[in-house]
Each structure stands twice: as structure tokens, then as C-alpha cells.
Amino acid sequence: MLPGALNIGDGYSRGLELEFEALLTRHLSAHLDYTYDQTKLTSLNPLFQVPNSSFAPPPTGGLLPGTPRNSIAGGFEFGHFELAGGQWRLAVNAHYQSDVVPALSATAPTVPGSRCLMRE
After folding, report:
1. Could you say which DSSP state residue 5 is in?
2. Distance (Å, rounded) from C-alpha 10 to C-alpha 120?
3. How many angstroms from the chain centroid is the CA of residue 119?
4. What is d(CA 117, CA 120) in angstroms, rounded to the nearest whole number?
5. Which residues, other chains included, contact 1 with Cβ-Cβ below 8 Å and sequence gap of 6+?
6. Alpha carbons 92 and 79: distance in angstroms, whole number
7. What is the DSSP letter of 27?
């Protein structure tokens, strides 16, 4: 048996992406990003069935994998100071994304949403 690839069918992705950046003072800037993405599997390829596929296909109308419905990121950067021939800066950023379907399978568990806080 040889591995192969098979087009699962048709789907769509529609959404909105917003980005805001602001220079609050000479040394302080901020950013806020938001993404909303609505994905859907609209039809299945008739070949995407057992025995052609080793797992049960997802239901039509379900989400496409790898794309969170909501994602938001924001942060502040304080810096732009000359120091020892370079520039000094301090940044704090945060990111959140909602649940994600990891694969096109009826049995794949949903990956829960995540949060992250970073300092540079």
C-alpha cells in the first residue's frame, strides 16, 4: 500500500481582519490586531470514503482545520533609545486564539484555545 493524497471536497473561508497601530508618545507605541474567520466544509468528494480513506470523513457543514474562529493580539513597545551604538526597547505582547480543529477527520479532537504573553 502506498500513501497518497486526496482532495476532500469543497469549502470556503470568509472573515475579517483589523489592525490598529498607534504612536502614543515619542517612545511608546501600541498595536491591536483582530481576526474573525468563518470556515465551512460544503461538500465531500465521493472518493473520500473507506476503503479509500483510513478514517471517517468529517461532516459537511463542519469547520475546516487549522483556523481559529477568533484571534486577537496586542501589545506595547517602549524604546527607541540610543544605547551603546544601538537602540534599546522593551516590548510586551499578548495573543489569544479560540479552539482549532486540527485535522479533516470526524474523530480528531478539537484543540482548545490558547493564550500567550511575551516580553522582549
Report:
1. -
2. 42
3. 21
4. 10
5. none
6. 12
7. S
pLDDT in tens, 59-91: 788 888 888 999 999 999 998 777 788 888 889
Q: Any idea how long the chain is? A: 120
pTM > 0.90: no
The CA distance from 23 to 29, in Å, is 4
CA proximity to 92, closest of 71, 114, 73: 73
Residues 105, 55: contact at Cβ < 8 Å? yes
DSSP 52-114: TSSSPPPPTTSPPTT--SEEEEEEEEEEEEEETTEEEEEEEEEEEE--B--SS-SSPPPBPPE
Question: Locate cell 483510513: which residue?
Answer: 54
Place of cell 470523513: 57
Nearest-CA neighbor of 11 among 99, 104, 106? Answer: 104
The per-residue pLDDT for range 99-117, each reduced to its tens digit, is 988 877 767 777 888 777 6
Q: Looking at this protein, which amino acid is placed at residue 50?
A: V
